Amino acid sequence: MKNSCSMIFIFFCLLAGCATKSVPPASIYTISPEWDSTRAQEETGKKNSTIIKMALVRGTRSLTGTEILYTDARYGRNSYAYSRWSDAPVRLLQILFQVALEESGWFGAVVPPTSASEADLLLESTLYDFSHHIKDDGTSDGVVRVRFYLIDNTAKTVTATKEFMSCVAAAPQNAQGAASALNKAATNVACDLVSWLAELGRL
């Protein structure tokens, strides 16, 4: 009985030791581009009265969490253990695209998905990739790939669709490097989106 009590005591001491091991605090990253609204206005041209509404960005289950994803094999996908996005990529990009369109000055108004107001156009999007790609040669890229659909709200038809993909070299090859590269890649896609919509507006 005495030996049994001793074993139980040792067991709980080991559990306590495991519980008190320090875990590194998570590093939190976000998408935070710097916009040059003056330049954007010059590139897109004169503001019009068209109202565009943003639909929620769609994405696979892995893109609706806060993990910073990386792939180092053809079909492999993992996440950095102690690093996270401040929000899910689909929500971070939702805000990014809305701000990009607002800052462009091209539209009369850009309204969010939750708005009860009517709009002339609806912008839908599907996020296919938002991850750190590590290659066999030791290099790596932050990759963002999105397809957009411009919907005529009156006719309920697809006016145009376009896919954009941006690959930006990541250094160092870790979560911090991935976050920096993905910020730049996301900004590139947002700028391509603005240019595409502006070109459609001129047609």
Task: Summarize the model shown.
The chain is an alpha/beta fold and 203 residues long. It is 34% helix and 32% strand.
Query: What amount of the residues lies in strands?
Result: 25-35%
**Alpha-beta classification:** alpha/beta
State the helix count: 4
Low-pLDDT parts are 5-20
Q: Which short descriptors sum up this protein?
A:
203 residues; alpha/beta; Rossmann fold; nine-stranded mixed β-sheet; 4 helices; 9 strands; 34% helix; elongated
Describe this structure in words.
This protein has about 200 residues and is α/β, with parallel strands linked by helices. The chain has four helices and nine strands; from the N terminus they run αβαββββαββββα. The protein has a single domain, classed as 3-Layer(aba) Sandwich (Rossmann fold), CATH 3.40.50. The protein is elongated, with a radius of gyration of 23 Å. Helix content is about 35%, strand content about 30%. It starts with a helix and ends with a helix. Helix 3 (about 90-105) packs across helix 4. It has helices spanning about 1-20, 35-45, 90-105, 175-200, and strands spanning about 25-30, 50-55, 60, 65-70, 80-85, 110, 120-135, 140-150, 155-170.
Which helices and strands appear, and what pairs or packs with what?
Layout: H1 2-19, E1 27-29, H2 37-44, E2 51-54, E3 58-59, E4 67-71, E5 78-85, H3 89-104, E6 109-111, E7 121-134, E8 140-152, E9 157-169, H4 175-202
Parallel strand pairs: 1-5, 2-6, 2-7, 3-7, 4-7
Antiparallel strand pairs: 4-5, 7-8, 8-9
